[in-house]
């Protein structure tokens, strides 16, 4: 699986009229700050991440197995997802890190789209969304846990970028009383995931989880990075509402979003935080632009995140500023976001860390290169502290 560090451009048209220059600002990292104190996110509430969180984080990153893959057929994309279970069952480094009894028990399921070719009569296919469920042992408790892992945006997926990431101008009702609204893009992704059916059993995710209703006390943990960090709380919230409706008191739902943008408005954030309680375990990097989207007081800080040197651009005279043409486009989008009430879920429960600045020995550093680094590798190195063997697995 290739680490999503080098994003690719999309068409100059974005849903809702967002200009291409605005997309450039965010797409490179969503597909996937030593600045002054007044630019900082809420303070860290915990001093370290648990072994359970690190287990779940690795399972999360494995969901991006089809990242950057352009295939001749949808079957080729499906076959490639089988690498996840193979790693869980057979890779010595993965098994040493998270345990030897992990296996995929639902999926992996994918939603694909056709990638039109301008140079060939034959089109190809890319994966827009991926979700799977793995079962194993929680290292902290010794108990069985099910992890629902949701992929982030695929850099080669035009649909994922247009219909999900940047589709924030409109909002959709969540549905429950006094539950607020989510972005139209979040609603698209949520509906795609909710309609997925396991190829072997034909069951949706909720139909599969219903089989745990008589299995004794069990935890189901939802996780995802980037776009998956926005969609995993939605899937977890729907699962909580479902267990309440069905009376499944033995199933505990938790959610571990990583580097996710804000999926809904203030009313939704309050509703979701109340439902999640202590089961919400978000991780965000203070220097990652994606979690700064779309809450307006955080969004406005994006252009200045990498302005100071040091720590950014070590050895240089200045940090990385947003180029003027992109600043102008950003200002246009900011005017729209300022009219919204997007708000992060339970910020008081988020683990916030400071990603160390990347070093560009060849002098090639820029705002966008630093943003991509802070969105992916900084989490691997500075938050979850993956050993090199695990980072090698993710980059192979």
From TrEMBL:
The protein's matches in InterPro entries, at most eight in alphabetical order, are given as: AB_hydrolase_fold (IPR029058), Fungal_lipase-type (IPR002921), Sec_MonoDiacylglyc_Lipase (IPR051218)
UniProtKB keywords: Membrane, Transmembrane, Transmembrane helix
- Organism domain of life: Bacteria
Q: Name one GO biological process term.
A: lipid metabolic process
Question: Which Pfam families did the record assign?
Answer: Lipase_3
Q: State which residue ranges cross the membrane.
A: 12-34
Domain Fungal lipase-type positions: 148-293
Q: What is this protein called?
A: Lipase (Class 3)
């Amino acid at each position: 699986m290739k680490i999503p560090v080098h994003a690719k451009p999309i068409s100059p048209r974005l849903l809702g009229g967002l200009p291409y220059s605005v997309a450039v600002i965010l797409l490179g990292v969503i597909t996937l700050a030593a600045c002054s104190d007044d630019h900082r996110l809420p303070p860290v509430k915990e001093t370290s991440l648990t072994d359970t969180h690190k287990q779940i984080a690795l399972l999360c990153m494995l969901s991006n197995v089809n990242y950057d893959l352009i295939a001749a057929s949808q079957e080729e994309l499906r076959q490639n997802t089988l690498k996840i279970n193979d790693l869980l069952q057979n890779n010595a480094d993965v098994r040493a890190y998270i345990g030897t009894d992990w296996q995929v028990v639902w999926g992996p399921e994918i939603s694909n789209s056709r990638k039109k070719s301008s140079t060939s009569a034959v089109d190809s296919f890319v994966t827009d969304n991926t979700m799977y469920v793995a079962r194993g042992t929680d290292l902290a408790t010794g108990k069985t846990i099910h992890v629902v892992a949701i992929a982030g945006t695929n850099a080669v997926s035009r649909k994922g970028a247009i219909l999900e990431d940047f589709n924030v101008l409109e909002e959709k009702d969540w549905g429950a009383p006094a539950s607020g609204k989510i972005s139209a893009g979040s609603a698209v992704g949520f509906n795609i995931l909710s309609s997925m059916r396991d190829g072997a059993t034909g069951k949706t995710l909720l139909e599969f989880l219903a089989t745990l209703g008589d299995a004794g006390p069990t935890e189901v943990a939802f996780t995802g990075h980037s776009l998956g960090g926005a969609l995993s709380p939605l899937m977890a919230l729907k699962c909580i509402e479902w267990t309440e409706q069905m009376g499944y008191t033995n199933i505990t739902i938790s959610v571990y979003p990583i580097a996710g943008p804000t999926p809904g408005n203030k009313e939704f954030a309050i509703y979701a935080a109340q439902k999640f309680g202590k089961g919400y375990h978000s991780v965000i990097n203070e220097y990652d632009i994606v979690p700064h989207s779309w809450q307006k007081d955080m969004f406005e800080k994006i252009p200045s995140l990498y302005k100071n040197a040091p720590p950014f651009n070590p050895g240089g005279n200045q940090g990385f500023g947003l180029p003027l043409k992109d600043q102008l486009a950003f200002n246009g989008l900011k005017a729209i976001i300022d009219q919204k009430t997007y708000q992060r879920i339970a910020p008081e429960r988020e683990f916030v860390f400071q990603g160390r600045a990347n070093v560009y020995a060849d002098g090639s550093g820029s705002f966008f290169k630093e943003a991509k680094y802070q969105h992916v590798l900084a989490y691997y190195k500075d938050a979850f502290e993956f050993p090199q063997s695990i980072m090698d697995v993710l980059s192979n």
